[in-house]
Amino acid sequence: MSTYNITATGQNIEAEAAFMAAEYPNGGYTLVTPDGANTPSLGTQITPEAFAKRLGTTALDAIYAAAASTPSLQAWIAQTWGAKYIDLADPLLATGLNNLVSATLLTAAQVTAILSAPVQPSEAA
Question: Residue 1: which of 14, 11, 18, 19 has the closest Cα?
Fold first, then answer.
């Protein structure tokens, strides 16, 4: 749990990163760091390259190998890498990643880490 400041109200709340991303998909909050300094939210949109890094090379290798015989996975790859950005709060992304868990290409823990890690300046779309 982290402390977040809601920009519109000035109120601080305790929440998980995934909750904040889901409830405030366009930002509108700042993470209050332990030393009291505020870090602006970068929202939930990351570049496809940043998304690939979050997946990691092992998972990417497994996904590409499985895609060789799975047309729907080939389409997902093409759509993902062709996108202008990946929105970590998009329910369709969570569904797609959970489908990869069902196919044993990712773990549930990996999905949680991918979706809930705060967007870093180098990842922002």
Answer: 14
